[in-house]
Structures are given as structure tokens and as C-alpha cells.
Amino acid sequence: MSDSPLRRVLLQSPAVIATGYLVLGWLWIVVSDSAVETLFPGRTAELQTANGLLFVVGTALIVWALLRFHRGQERAARDAAARVERRYRALIEKSSAMVWVLEADGRIRYASPEFQRVFGRGGLDVTGACALDWLEAGDRPPARAAFLDRPARPAAPVAPVEVRLRDAGGNWRLVEARATDLRDDPAVGGVVVHMIDLTEHRRLERHLIQSEKTETVGRMAGGIAHDFNNLLTVVNGYVERVLEGMPHADPLRVDILEIRRATHRAIALVRHLLDSSRSRERAPRRLDVNDVVHDLRPMLRRVTPETVAVETTLEARFAVLFDPVELEQVLLNLVLNARDALPGGGTIRIETETVDLSSPLRLNGSEIPGGAYTVLRVADDGAGMDAETARRAFDPFFTTKPPGQGTGLGLSTVRGVVERSGGRIHLDTAPGRGVRVEIWLPIAAGLEASAR
Q: For residues 313 and 378, what is the distance between their CA atoms, to the nearest angstrom?
């Protein structure tokens, strides 16, 4: 709406209006009294009365017209401001940007709907809450400096900071926040903070780095394993020749048999390394996880000591699309890890069930998309892991076992196999409450699993 001179006078200069009114009124009285005496001698009193009444009516009409004009201008200004506010509010509320408007003391005056959606606080009124209280304690000082300290150039965005905010589910999410100080702008009167959720981006970044590291280490290990396998083949051949020519009563035969057993174990380990480092032809097919667990139980019983009980609860109702050899490898690795966590004995529980997620499920920072899954769980009641050990549990060649007793490839191989087949893996542990590993495998529709 144009800002005309008349509007500026009417809206901003009431003193000018009052002065003009007095001047016009005085001129009217003087001119009208002189004109009446000249034109109508002898009837001055009656006409002056009519003149006064006319003056009052005219004045009232002028004041009414001015007030009506003024109110119309105010209404138009309010409507224009409301249209602008609705436009900019729609831009914020319909966008994917997460926005805060903070008071000078850090209290939240406004939080965008996208922030409410991402952080699960849609039903909570955040107005008046202190923004810094939601941050991880170590991130509060840099956030306070970025959000609330006066910048050298007001209204200019400051350098972004990365902070961790806890969502409604209790999980920490990494956010890049960029603040603009608009406390001196009458239209805003606060600090505007734009935020971008980096959690998934960083997870994918770590996954890419991990994949590249695994590929590099795998190529190196594959080359070494290939050469070592050739040497073991020669050793094993000579051992077999010695046994063929050795009498059964020879006292050294027991030692040679031990050498052969050790050689076979070394060959199995080398083949495991070769399988981990090279891409063999996979053969995924519709697979009943319950059948795999049931068929593998005799082998699992042989690889666990008598002090360790193996319990199964198989309730999965649908099959998955998976390579049967790889699924056996996954289950065997998980059971062996659980066995090693129970040196004094205990219980290993193997469970399967069908889970239908109506919405994505967030577990320890990773997200499982909605859908139907067969979940394979292997849990032990051992000592468990601390947070740092759990964080590195899937790293290649990371192991908590003494030197010479672990390769550190078990869980790394399991994760690679599971994710290559479209599944997800989740580890749940804490000191004193054992370890539970969950394998989430998408259901292959059209085939029910067998009940056992």
C-alpha cells in the first residue's frame, strides 16, 4: 500500500490536524459573520444561529469522514500485515526447515512444525522452555556463544555449530545450527536459529567409511589368506602322507593327529577369511529361519560346552529371502560369540518372531523402516559390554579376546552379510546384563514359516 502524504499527515501528525481545524473554524466564523451582516441586515441573530448549527453539523461530518478514512487505512494496514505474516508463516510451516526464535535469555518463543515432527514433541508446548536445556551438556557453551552472544555484525549469520539434541525417544540427534541475531529488528525481536538434522547423513557417512575400510582390509587379508592357504594345503598333504605310512600303535601318531586337527582348523579359518574378502556367487532363496535354526542345533550343541545351555523359541510365521549358507554363517558366528561370553557357563537364547512395524523404528541411532520383518535374536546372560566396546563391536579385527584367541571378524562379517541381503542388525547390551543381537530381515511375502 502506497504511503501518500495525506496518509502520513492523518496517521502521524494529529497536531497538524488540530491546528488546521482551528484555522478553518476561525476563518469560517469571521467570513460567515461578515457575509451575514452584509447580505441580510436586521436578521443577523437568526442567521448566526443557523450558521453555528451549520458549523457544528459540518464539523461533525468532517470529523466522521476523517475517522472513517483513518479506520479504513488502519484496517487495510492490518490486513496487509496479516497477509504478509500468513505468507511467511506458511513458508516456514510447510518447509522442511527446523526453526527456533529465541528470546535474549535463550527461551523459545517459536518452534517450527518440522522441529516438532523430528523431535517428537508435537503434543508438547515448547514456548517458554530454555533451548539450551535440550542440548548435551558439553555442547551448551558453544551453543550459548553462537545463539546468545552479540555478534560483531548484527543480523549477519554466524558460523554454524554442531550440537546434539535429545528427541522424545531419548536418542541423541546431531544437528547443525546457524543463528541470526535479529533482536534489534522490531519485526522479529529475537534470535532466529535454523537447524539441519545431520544424524542420518553422518550415519551413512560412517557406513561408507566403514565399507571402504572393510573393503581395503578385506583385499589385504584375502591376498595373505590365499598364500597361507596354499602353504596349509602343502602341510596338510604331508601330514596325510605321514599318517598313511605310520602304524596305528606308533606313540607319535597321537601328536600327528593333533597336527592334522590344528591344520584343519587353520584351513577353516583361512576359508572364512577368503569368504569375507571376496564376493562369491550368492544364492538367495525363500528361506524358513525356523528350519535353519532347527537344522543347525546339533552343530550348535557340539560347539558349546556342557555348562552352556542353548534354548530356542521359534515363533516366526513367514519366510525371508536369504542365502541359506550365509544365514547359517550368521547364526553360527552369533552363537560362538555368545559362547565365548560365558566362560563360567550360562544360557544362550535363540528366538525368532514376526514383527510388523506400522512406522519406522529407531534403535540406538539407526532406523528400521516400517514393514513386516522376521526377527532373529541371539542373546546371552554374560557380563555384557560397555558403551565404547559396543560402539566398536562391528569394526573389522576388533576383539576383546586375548591375543591369539579371536580374529575380530565375526560381527563384522555378520553385519556385511545381513545388510547385503537388505536386513538390519541391532546390538543391545550393557554391563551386567549380557548381549542381545537382533537380525531384522524383511519378509518374503507368499510363504509361511514352519512352526516349531
A: 11
